[in-house]
Amino acid sequence: MTRGGRHRTALAALLLGALTLTACTGTGGDPTATPETTAPSSATATPEPLPWGPTEPEVQAAIETAATMSPEAVAGQVILGRYPGTDPAAAAQELSRHQLGGLVLFGENVRTLEQVQATAEAVQAAQTELGRSWPAIFAVDNEGGPVQRLSARTGPWTSFPEFMANGAANDEDVTRGAAEAMAIELRASGLNFNFAPVADVTVGADDAAIGTRSAGDDPQLVADVVSAAVQGFTDGGVLSSVKHFPGHGSLQVDSHEGLPEQHTSGRELARRDLVPFQAGIEAGAATVMVGHIAVDAWDPGVPASLSPAAYSHLREDLGFTGVAITDGLDMGAVTEGSSPGEIAVQALAAGADLLLGPTDAGAAQQGIVDALADGSLGRERLDQAAGRVIAMMRWQAQAAEATGPVAADEAGSGADASLALSRAAITQVSGECGGVLAGPQIHVRGGSTEDWDAFVAAAEDAGLQVVPLEEDADTNVRLLTAGSPTGTGDVVITLDGPWLLQGQDAPVLLAAFGHTSGTFTALADVLAGQAAAPGTLPVQVRGLPASSC
Predict the structure, then answer these.
(1) How many domains does the chain have?
(2) Which residues are identified as catalytic?
(3) Which of 56, 128, 154, 412 lies in the 20 to 30 Å Cα band around 34?
C-alpha cells in the first residue's frame, strides 16, 4: 500500500473512531441499547467533515477560541509574515513579536536541511510559548519548475518539473504521486503548508505571468490536474492552496508589477477560469489564494483580494467554506497609495481570512487593532477569519498525525515520483514514433551550461555518445529554453514552454517541460529508443498536433 493509501485509511479510521465514540455516548451509557432499538439522535450524530477537513462545530469552536484572544493576538493570527536570513532565532522572534499566524519560507531563508528543520522547530516552540495549542503555519511556494524554494538547487530536496508537465502527462495517479512525494519532503523539513497547485488556465505564449506554471489551456484538463494535486498534498499531510483566484492565466499584466484587469464576462469566467478552482475546492483544498486581479464583471478597478464581490462569488457560487488567503500584500497591484494597515483592514473587511506577506507585518497588525478600536472592522468578522485559520491548523495537525511520522531523511525521497512525472510528460509532436530518434553519436547545442551538462550525462547513461562539434555526428540535438529560444537541428527539444516549437521544421520535435535530472533521463531514454513519449501538448501551438504518437 502506498503512503497515500495508508493516509486515507488512517483518516478513515480517525473519522470512524469519532463516529464510534459519538455513537457510544449517544445511548446515554445504556448497555442494553442497540442500533435497532435506539433511534439516532440528531443532537449526538457525528458531524460530517467539511470538504477541507474540520467539521462545522470544530470551526465554530475555533471561532470561539479566537473571540477569547486579545486584539493584538487575534490580529496577528490572521497574518503570514516573512523573516530575515537563515537564523532560526530570527524566525521565532518574528512570529512572537507580532503574534503571527505563521511564517513563509523563501529561498533566502534556506541554507541547509538541518537549518530549515531547526527553523521549523524554533517557530513551533515560539507558537507554544504564545499559549497556542495549534501549530503555527510554516509555508512555502513549491509548485515545481522555477517556483520551488526547496529543490535540488537549494539542498537535498527533489526538483520537480514544471507544473505543466502534469497537464502533458494527463495521468491522475502520476500527478497525485508527485504531489504526495513533494508534501512528504516538505513535512520532513518541518513545513505544513504549500502554496500550490496553480489553478490558472493559461493562454500560452501571451500569458504574462503564469505560463508553464499552469497545467494547460483547457479548463477541464487543468481541473483534473488540480484535483489530483490537491489530493496528493493531502495524502502527504500538507495543506494546499489553489491559486490565483479568479484566474491569472489570460492576463497581460503581472500582478507583481501592477494591477491586471479581467475584461471577460462573468459567464465566460465561470465557463473557463473558475472551473479548476471549483475542482480544487471539491477535492478538499483547505485554502484558496485570491489574486490581485480586477474583474470588470464583479468590481471594476478593485483587486479581487480586496473586493467583497470576489469573496462573495468564491463563497456563494463555488461553495468554498475554507480559508481565503490573499496573494502577497507586498505586490505592486495593491501597494500603491495604501499603507500595510489599510490594505490589511480592507482585505479582511472584504472577506479574506489570512493575509499573506504584508510589507510590514507589525504595521498590518497595528492597523487591524486600530480598526477594531474605531469600529471600522468588526470583531465578529476578525474572529471568523482567525477561527477558520485555527480550525485549519488543528485539522492539519490531526491529518499529519494520521499519515504517520515522516523521517528527516525523507527530504530528497521524491526522485522516483519526479522521474515518473517527467516520463509521462515527454511529448513528441513531429517524427516517427517508437524507435531510435538520435545517435549513436550526437552533437548537443543550446540551453544553459547546467542544462547542457545534465543532458549530456543522461544521454551517455542511455548509450548515446556526445561528440565535440568539430567531429562528425549522426544527429544534431538542439535544446530550446526561454533563455535560448532559437536554433534548429535534427532533433529540437523545448525544456520550457511548448510554444517555443512553433515554426520549427526539424524532423523530430519534443517537449519536455522541465530542467530536472528526471527530465533529462526521460528525454535521453526516448531519444535512444528505450522509452516512448506518451505525453500530449496541454496547450495549443499553432501548426503542431497535440502529439504525433
Answers:
(1) 3
(2) 256, 327
(3) 56
